[in-house]
Amino acid sequence: MRASRAWLASLLLLPLAGCQDDGGGRDGEAVLPERTAPAGMNESLRDAALALVEAREQALVDGDREAFLATIDPAADAFARSQARWWDNVAQLPASDFALDLGDEDVMTRVAGAGDLQLPVDFTMRLDGYDEGAVTQPLVYTFVGDADEVHLTSDRNLQSDAFTGWVPAPWDVTAITVEESDGVLAVFDDGTRADADRVHADIVAARDAIRPLLPPWSGRVVAYDISDVDAIDEMSAMTVDDTGGVAFPVTRRPGSRRSVAYRFAVNPVHTAGGAWRGILFRHELVHVALGDADDRSPTWLTEGAAEHVAYAAAYDEVTRRRILAGALAGVTPRSLATGRDFYQRDPRVNYDLAHLACAYLASTGGEDALWDLVRSFRRREALLPGDVEDLVRAEVGMSTEQLVSEALAWARSA
User: Fold this and answer.
1) CA-to-CA distance for 297 and 282, rounded, in angstroms?
2) Beta carbons of 206 and 285 less than 8 angstroms apart
């Protein structure tokens, strides 16, 4: 399954407000009582806080774990533990281009204050060899202390995370194990690492099997196989129980339309091995390989092409036709579903019909027929079902219902 760029994220964000009491003074003059700054807004700490940010950035660049963890408030035990885990996780990755920069301070009007001072900080990192550019993640640093010395108590804020649409990577939320070789970087956790060697080998095999059927592609892959499926649940248009995996774009920063990589996450419930795992891995890797190239294609073409390649890499044409004929027994010709309806109204049949249509196009017109159609949608945006039908008629010479009718006859004659 291919995830869209638009993550679901919205909360009512609360502005900060301070209160002030009036008092009486000598000679009847009004006197303002002494007060501290509202939570998170003690600007007297700003210079010390910015110096701490620079120290953390230098620790990242130098690979100095002790200096990085020394910036944390000694009383913030849980945060210190999670930061130590994060450091040890990232140390296993080919991470580079570290940077910590002051972010957009307007965001602070949208979050509730905490600590003595809060500042937005943009964290930048790149997976070298896998990402075409660095990825920037907006954080909110919470500091405590005084003008002479400050420490960090948190780097996240729930309201800011919701506003930016933050989707955590595995190294943000759990202890990971990394397997990297043959151009594949696979990330596992305690619940999945026992099968890490086999899963990694199967991803490599799936990648190698589909490359001859695809437009030119680097073959470099980052895959997640972790027990926490919350991110998959958020990205999938179907229920997580019905989602075997999801390919998704990694953008330069939240809200950006420019992706620097496509990665995929598998649902470990659906990776028990055998033929199904191979099909799942090949399908998701097609999405990774195509990346942005098919982001204007209708859903049936995006998913159908991935299904076609996943099966064509392992089965001969006669076998695939018989598989499709069996899966679609009793189904009558219909227009191909697109948009969210594809995933939410009879998704299994929609996947099979999309697979059938793409397999038929590739069989009768060659594999390039699929990629030519993808390129046509890339050149000419078709947002509405009628626009999709018009473009398909122009390129293929028939409606999608006629395409399904001919493809059904083709499959059933095997």
Assistant:
1) 19
2) yes
